[in-house]
Design a protein that fits this description.
Chain B: InterPro entries: GcvPA, GDC-P_N, PyrdxlP-dep_Trfase, PyrdxlP-dep_Trfase_major, PyrdxlP-dep_Trfase_small. The complex is a heterodimer of chains A (524) and B (464). Chain A is α/β, with parallel strands linked by helices and 524 residues long. In chain A, 35% of the residues lie in helices and 10% in strands. In chain B, α3 packs antiparallel against α12 and α12 packs across α14. The chains are: A alpha/beta (524), B alpha/beta (464).
Chain lengths: 524, 464
């Protein structure tokens, strides 16, 4: 009997396509999805309808025009749309570089969905949340080990919010020293998340951006030029999104600290560093980790996430409160922080992610964490080695090994074929791959950024490489094929891009769409 | 304890298999993994072992965490009357089913071509909340109500080029802390007094404080202390007289029975999504939305992502994308509007599911049940001599201030006694609002049965 031929190099993929209507189009008057509890007869007898006490001006006059849909039809709609979403659990998720799309262990979802987590109220007495406080405190201790910092707050709800909290601490620190007016500049780098610059600006700082030198390191000579008694802080990732570790980082932090600035470390790219090198020894005053990146909590379609914010002793009193402390055998909330910036996210941040990250660390242990870093870096260097063999691909800046990710370039490919990184992005969807270019501005021409983490096998990486190779071959032989992609996605390219730019045409809600399309029917 | 290490390959890390590692090293031309870290100077290498416990197998981990979590007393274990910005509501099973789907749970920032479903559900969420608040623009949500309020304030400040905002003194102290930190150093937050009888904003004080410097007046309905602000139109008119923007924060569980603020003068509406099908999660369930009219001057000030609908090359297909992407910090770094990044999209998806399930009737019934049950609780507590559950005279929604000043006990002592009886009493206001003395903020929602409320009343009566 002849075996079934499985020799094809790229996946013969087709994403689900349900052609779902917008949920409002499922409306059938009178249908119900769920019926909320109603008051008991005795309550009604005692109180009446409960709503006639609302002053007339504040009584809802017309019902909200929500759709009326039976429960299973709502469920089916959302399940269909879920199938049109390529979550990390489904693909070789190396394409969303900088996002550290690793495996989120299922057992941690069991913990996170326990009512001992979901049904906790943030204001309940600390005696009744000793388990949660214990987890938080222990995670603080682990984070101290990993970073060398002296105290952590888990209040920030994301990396962006952690950056904002750190910029707030920088300002509060200089205010406490009477230097807030004088120190009005924060220095950052171009190969960093845009939120480094943006959150500093929200806090009122002038932003100075360092560009890379010929090797891809932030330009140290430029730093020396711009640093002064106006410097409030310096924020940087290391490695930056190029995956190049700045070996002179200690000199950078020394220059800034000697000028009186605070050095804060964006550890969004920490996955290759666990147990290898730490923020403290590199001279940082503060750092943060994304629990949804390095520490495996699921990205949740874009949050809730969590930023673990660590500081050295001299900045502890500036942390947002409360922080968790151990007192004998009990855990307590300490909101007695003299210079606290106040709060950045309500209550205690995103505790379910504190729990997941804690469980992930316990499943790995110290040795396992180092395995994570080493394997992430091994995987990345393997991918890097193989991608550089693909015609038209390059990795600008210093030659030699990279850490956990690389920002590549298709400059040559675009020059040769006219195919751009955006074209490749659309075509990668046909083979079940995520693919990301870069933040703006594109400093590297025709960029793409890959981060394979520790979660993917050699065979997984080979599949991703084979897909890219296949597309590049198409680019050189049949560029139209790539340009017109995708073919196997749930969706085709949007036309009329002015629908996202023109106020007469954009529709941010269904009701706006109905109004605007009706208007155009009348006029046309 | 089993040594996971001894099995060598970790279940989460495929390439811990030694043969595979060796082969990969051979292919890339390295002798060891250490070589790959050559870019890190020796003096920065951490040569000790991290002081973190050894790995646990999944079963051990499970036992360990179950034991730790069992030290928590959840609101399912007791009857809880805690609210104040995070509330216990019924979460329909379909909400949990959708938000635990691995497709949504593990997605992140993919493009339309990979994540079409994510784009559509977020557009639908925007559209569903839009109906509730009667506004045409709703954002992909931010972290929580406090952040939504803080961003609304910054939007108003940019639109008016003014730098002072008036906020009622009755706002949640935690929310105020967040707003203050987010708005500093540019925007001055000035608090407006309240009427001690009703709790409502003191309009004379508001008039005094309004000026050509006022960017916005912000107030909440229902307020943090549970009462309904009734002079909404007057507040909005006063703001308008001074060319200031009116921002109203809302609890959306009230909007089936209460008029949306857009109909009484609000220019920007913001609020908390957590009541809409999201578990409290010790506060981790919070998510803040912002809504405005569909006018360029508002839309261009949003820092958030705003998904719009557009046709694709295929006839009859809905496509989605970012409206005015150029506004954002992703496009313009420090020159963008504030900053945007990972926020709370999963809670947006969940709130959308909730509103689709509830429909107009469900939201109306929800509001009504909450009002009946909370009024019943006030009515019953008021019968206890020395206790007033209607400290503020007027209409409440969901929450109310219970005054224990006439008892010999502090709120702290009462709450301790209640805990012993399996009840979480209301939030102690004695520190947050010292002028109220021994008062507590109680929350009653649709989940509180008559018997739960009766149990509370009986317990409180027994302490007298």
């Amino acid at each position: 009997m002849k075996a079934i031929n499985r020799d094809h190099k790229v996946r013969n993929f087709h994403q689900a396509k349900w052609d779902e209507p917008i949920i409002f189009e499922l409306h059938q008057e009178g249908e119900r999805g769920i019926i909320p509890p109603t008051a008991e007869q005795e309550v009604v007898e005692s109180i009446g309808d409960g709503v006639s006490v609302i002053p007339n001006a504040l009584k809802r006059k017309s019902k909200p025009e929500l759709p009326e849909i039976t429960q299973n039809r709502v469920l089916r709609h959302y399940l269909r749309l879920s199938q049109e979403t390529l979550g990390a659990a489904f693909n070789v998720e190396v394409g969303q570089g900088t996002c550290t799309m690793k495996y989120s262990p299922k057992i941690n979802e069991v913990f996170a969905s326990s009512h001992k987590m979901t049904a906790l109220h943030p204001k309940q007495d600390e005696e009744t949340v000793q388990g949660m406080l214990e987890v938080t405190h222990n995670l603080d201790l682990y984070m101290r080990e990993i970073s060398g910092m002296d105290n952590f707050s888990f209040q920030p709800g994301s990396g962006t919010q952690a950056l904002f909290a750190m910029a707030s601490i920088v300002r509060a620190y200089h205010e406490a020293n009477g230097e807030a007016d004088q120190r009005d500049e924060i220095i950052t780098t171009i190969f960093s998340h845009p939120a480094q610059a943006a959150t500093a600006a929200v806090k009122g700082y002038k932003v100075i951006t360092l560009y890379p030198d010929a090797d891809g390191f932030p330009d140290i000579e430029k730093l020396k030029e711009v640093v002064s008694d106006k410097t409030a802080g310096f924020v940087v990732a290391n490695p930056e999104d190029t995956g190049i570790y700045n070996s002179r980082i200690k000199e950078f932090t020394k220059i800034v600290r000697e000028a009186g600035g605070i050095c804060y470390y964006d550890q969004a790219n920490a996955n290759g560093l666990l147990g290898i090198t730490r923020a403290k020894e590199a001279g940082f005053d503060m750092c943060f980790f994304n629990l949804h990146k390095t520490f495996s909590t699921p990205h949740a379609s874009g949050g809730p996430a969590a930023g673990a914010l660590g500081v050295t002793e001299r900045l502890k009193s500036f942390l947002p409160g409360p922080i968790v402390e151990k007192d004998g055998n009990r855990y307590k909330l300490n909101d007695d922080l003299d210079h606290s910036i106040g709060k950045v996210r309500s209550y205690h941040g995103v505790p379910q992610n504190i729990l997941r990250a804690y469980a992930w660390i316990r499943a790995l242990g110290a040795d396992g964490l180092k395995d994570v870093a080493e394997t992430a870096v091994l995987n990345n260097n393997y991918l890097y080695h193989q991608i550089l063999k693909i015609k038209g691909a390059s990795a600008p800046y210093i030659k030699g090994k990279r850490l956990e990710q690389v920002r590549y370039s298709w400059e040559q490919l675009t020059e040769d074929t006219g195919i751009t990184t955006d074209d490749i992005s659309r075509r990668m969807a046909d083979f079940a791959h995520q693919y990301w270019t870069s933040h703006h501005p594109f400093v590297v021409p025709q960029p793409f950024t890959l981060e394979p983490t520790e979660s993917y096998s050699k065979a997984d990486l080979d599949e991703y490489i084979a897909s890219l190779t296949h597309i590049v071959n198409e680019a050189y032989t049949d560029p139209e094929k790539v340009k017109n992609a995708p073919y196997n996605s749930s969706i085709h390219p949007v036309v009329e891009h002015d629908r996202f730019e023109d106020p007469e045409k954009w529709a941010i809600t269904w009701r706006a769409y109905l109004k605007k399309t009706k208007r155009s029917e009348v006029t046309s | 304890m089993a040594d996971v290490k001894s099995t060598i390959a970790h279940p989460y890390i495929p390439n811990t298999v030694p043969e595979v590692r060796d082969e990969m090293l051979r292919i890339i031309g390295a002798n060891s993994v250490e070589e790959l870290f050559a870019g890190i100077p020796d003096d920065l290498k951490y040569n000790k072992k991290l002081n973190i416990p050894d790995a646990l197998s999944e079963y051990e981990l499970s036992r360990n965490l179950e034991k730790t979590l069992s030290k928590n007393v959840s609101t399912k274990d007791v009857i809880s009357f805690l609210g104040g910005g995070c509330w216990e509501h019924y979460v329909p099973a379909v909400c949990d089913e959708v938000n635990s789907r691995a497709e949504f749970l593990t997605a992140y920032a993919g493009d339309e071509y990979e994540d079409h479903g994510r784009f559509q559900v977020l557009f639908e969420y925007q559209s569903l909340v839009a109906e509730l608040v009667d506004m045409d623009v709703v954002n992909v949500p931010t972290f929580d109500w406090a952040q939504a309020a803080a961003t609304s304030i910054r939007m108003a400040s940019r639109m008016t080029d003014r730098y002072e905002v008036l906020i009622p003194k009755t706002i949640s102290p935690d929310r105020l802390k967040i707003i203050k930190n987010y708005c500093s150093p540019h925007i001055k937050i000035t608090l407006v007094d309240y009427n001690p009888e009703s709790g409502e904003m003191d309009l004379d004080d508001l008039k005094k404080k309004l000026s050509e410097k006022t960017a916005a007046v912000y107030f909440e309905n229902p307020s943090y202390l549970g009462f309904i602000e009734t002079a909404c139109k007057e507040i909005g008119d006063l703001a308008k007289e001074h060319n200031a923007i009116t921002i109203v924060g809302v609890d959306p569980s009230s909007l089936g029975v209460m008029e949306p603020p857009s109909r009484y003068g609000a220019d920007i509406v913001c609020g908390e999504l957590q009541p809409l099908g999201i578990h409290m999660n010790y506060g981790g369930g919070l998510s803040g939305f912002i809504a405005t009219r569909d006018e360029v001057k508002y839309v261009e000030e949003f820092p958030s992502r705003l998904f719009g609908v557009a046709p694709t090359i295929k006839e009859g297909e809905y496509g989605f994308g970012d409206v005015l992407y150029g506004r954002t910090s992703m496009a313009q770094r420090e020159k963008g509007k504030e900053s945007v990044g990972t926020q709370t999209s999963m809670w947006a998806i969940t709130a959308g599911v909730y509103l689709a399930l509830m429909g107009p009737e469900g939201m109306k019934e929800l509001g009504q049940t909450i009002m009946q049950r909370s009024q019943y609780a006030v009515h019953e507590l008021d019968k206890i001599e020395g206790i007033t559950a209607s400290h503020f005279k007027g209409v409440n929604f969901k929450e109310f201030v219970v005054d224990f000043n006439e008892t010999a006990l502090t709120v702290k002592e009462i709450n301790k006694k209640l805990r012993e009886k399996g009840i979480f009493g209301g939030i102690d206001l004695s520190e947050e609002f010292p002028e109220l003395g021994q008062c507590a903020l109680y929350c009653v929602t649709e989940i509180h049965l008559k018997e739960d409320i009766d149990q509370l009343v009986q317990a409180v009566r027994s302490f007298k």
